[in-house]
Amino acid sequence: MIVYNIEKVEELLALCVCCDKTRRKIGIDVHGVVTRYPDTFAKLTRQLLEHGHQVHIVTGARVNRELVEKLIRHNIVWTTIFSIVDYHELIGTRVRYDENGPWIKENLWDKTKAQYAKKVRLDWHIDDSEVYGKFFKKPTRYVLLK
Ligand SMILES: [Mg+2]
Asked: What are phi and psi of 145, to 5 degrees?
């Protein structure tokens, strides 16, 4: 796990953009990342796609109209979206709902982003939650945005 502030994240992604011989796969969390620095990620996601890299939106929230509209409103562009909740519903994990949203067993929830990262071989995943970091293994590097 690497701890970066937004300036370092910008540097990292700018490096990907300028060295576009290697196609990179970049994971980006929504809440606390895109929502905290929407202008920065609007610019960076556009540049990444323009240079042939992939932007994977990796979020806990369900992929629905609200989420997509939020991303569009922030001018975020992406290749694909992965949702922890949608994934667990798809594979039949028990999902419980209350007024705070969906719940599944904590240990299952916390490692899901890492499982996705491994499956699609993300190069980097940028997130604001420290708890997911320990599950990430090579080739993905977990960037904790502070
Ligand atoms: Mg977050």
From this structure: -85, 120
Per-residue pLDDT of 85-139, as tens digits, reads: 999 999 999 998 888 888 898 889 999 999 999 999 999 999 999 999 999 999 9
The two tokens of residue 131 are 């708890």
Report the separation in Å between the CA atom of 133 and the middle of ligand 1, taken as the mean of its atom positions.
12
Domain boundaries, the chain: 2-145
Tell me which CATH code domain 2-145 carries: 3.40.50.1000
Q: Are 10 and 52 in contact (CB under 8 A)?
A: no
Q: How far is the CA of 34 from the centre of ligand 1 (A)?
A: 9
Cα–ligand 1 centroid distance for 5 (angstroms): 14
106 phi and psi angles, rounded to 5 deg? -55, -45
